[in-house]
Amino acid sequence: MSLEIVDSCVGCFACEPLCPNKAISAVMQPGEPLFFINPDKCTECLGDHDLPQCAEICPIEGAIVDEYGEPLNPPGSLTGIPLHLLEQLREAECRQ
Amino acid sequence: MELPVISNTAPVEASGGCSESGCGTAPDGLSHLPDHIRSKVQDHPCYSEEAHHYFARMHVAVAPACNIQCNYCNRKYDCSNESRPGVVSELMTPDQAVKKTLAVATAIPQMTVLGIAGPGDPLANPERTFETFRQLSEQAPDIKLCVSTNGLSLPDCVDELAKHNIDHVTITINCVDPEIGAQIYPWIFWENKRIRGIEGAKILIEQQQKGLEMLTARGILVKVNSVMIPGVNDHHLKEVSRIVKSKGAFLHNVMPLIAEAEHGTYYGIMGQREPTPLELQALQDDCSGDMSMMRHCRQCRADAVGLLGEDRGDEFTLDKIDTMEIDYATAMVERAKVHDAITTELEMKRALKAAPKFNPAVEEAAPATRNIRIAVATKGGGVINEHFGHAHEFLVYEIGPKEHRFLGHRKCTAYCMGDESCGDGETVLGGIIKSLEGVEVLLASKIGFEPWADLEKAGIKPNGEHAMEPIEEAIRAVYDEMAAAGKLALPAGGVAAQAA
């Protein structure tokens, strides 16, 4: 049982000091997500906090996923931007 | 010829008997401040309209994490071509930031102010922020240290801030009403939880107000920034201004919302509009009272370097500073000389402004003329020294028969971006003209033939006759010339109509 940071992470460091298990570290490998959660250390904060701390502070929707790949902060959940507008934005970004 | 400044409150009646300069107006509207505060801020480029032409500032991006979300911010953004708060190109460790600061201070001796402003919230990154301050206060005692914050962690950091000789803290306060706050802040992170809506906004507001009170109680200068969001907090900001002033903030800076769809922010995507220059100015006038406003604020990036309105960050990227040898002890001697020369020049200017004026009675008899707005293209130094086509912004002044005041800057895309983009000149020019709404005269060191005609058509008179002249003298000369030619007669209804 472990959470995972995917490549939409912007590397803001907000999660790193909050982890009760010191499972999060910065990665300097090109092409990899900017932060890495060590699956051997991650407990999803069970026993320490009611909710996983990295996902509670993360400002990027979809950047932290559970073991099934489901985002803890799904699209629209943090910014309040309606899904159809997010879709348009993503298409515009792809064209660039 | 030196000129007094129009006060921010009410137009002064031409009643005679009082020489304008004796009425307590000062070049920056800083005159109401107690001496110990004024001496701290009058040479600070961000606080003093006058000083910003001479002294430079820099921000170091050591603070990436944030503990709240604002609807005008997109944490994904990182762009070198964009100038707005929260955007940076390169994140740094405290050691790298210290080296960059020393490198810039050596290369640009006019750089006197180091700020930490993000790209996240500096106090949500207390270790990185305070490590940078600690090293700099030891190694570069001739640099003023500043920090800005959203205020959520501020009460916990006040003691630490007081330790590091930080005499200016900026708190961004957009509201004092949680219902309004919920429309600006979708969530905050507080006591290990993401707290949304009104509940989150309420905690944020309480922490901001508490932090403000704690700082002013310790004698640390506090500036309050507010973002003007039309239809959300525009009317409310008058109350914010009154409250923060009563709690001891020495300055309230109302800035316009920046919200374009391509920035990917909530407001940008949802089509929340930005205020127009005239709306911003009206609110700044309403909020100012006897409290000075930073009309020259440029809403700098969190990694900006140089004079306000310019960014020399490209000269000091990490790979470049790595190769630089810095002898700061020697640099400090050189810096002191440069600072002394600037201070002497500024003092001379201030003394001239304060000197009693000769006011012949004839002036009183001149027919009444109306106030107009004049835009000026400048690269700095307080003179008209920028070509129209190269200007990225224009300074706008309001000038009347006796007094003038600085209203603010209007940003634009430069008309000539180089040969390739000159094809876009037409649309760019349209944008410039729109940004100059309400302006009747434009002064630049040179203005090309094509934009000249379009400016005239839009009711803006271009003028290139005052190149290299001090701004204040030039706008006065232009005004007097127009007045003498009978072009500035008051509209029917006279003074009352103008004031309305």
Give me a quick take on this structure.
By secondary structure, chain A is of the alpha+beta class.
Can you describe what's shown?
The complex is a heterodimer of chains A (96) and B (500). Chain A is α+β, with helices and mostly antiparallel strands. Chain A has a single domain, classed as 2-Layer Sandwich (Alpha-Beta Plaits). Chain A is 19% helix and 10% strand. Chain A is built from two helices and four strands. In chain A, the strands form two sheets. Chain A has a two-stranded antiparallel sheet. In chain A, β2 (24-26) and β3 (35-37) form a beta hairpin. In chain A, 30% of the residues are buried. Chain B is built from 16 helices and 15 strands. Chain B has helices at 35-41, 94-107, 126-139, 154-163, 178-181, 197-217, 237-246, 266-270, 277-288, 318-322, 328-354, 361-365, 425-435, 449-457, 471-484, 494-499, and strands at 56-59, 68-69, 111-116, 144-149, 168-172, 187-190, 193-196, 221-228, 251-256, 305-306, 372-376, 393-399, 404-411, 441-443, 461-463. Chain B folds into two domains: 27-322, Aldolase class I (TIM Barrel, Alpha-Beta Barrel), CATH 3.20.20.70; 367-499, 2-Layer Sandwich (Nucleotidyltransferase, domain 5), CATH 3.30.420. In chain B, strands 9-8-5-4-3-1-10 form a seven-stranded mixed β-sheet. With 500 residues, chain B is α/β, with parallel strands linked by helices. Classes of the chains: A alpha+beta (96), B alpha/beta (500). Chain A binds chain B through residues 8, 10-14, 17-18, 49-51, 53, 56-57, 59-60, 78-81, 85-86, 89, 92, and chain B through 64-67, 69, 71, 75-76, 78, 91, 120, 124-125, 127, 186-187, 189, 192-194, 262, 264, 266, 269-270.
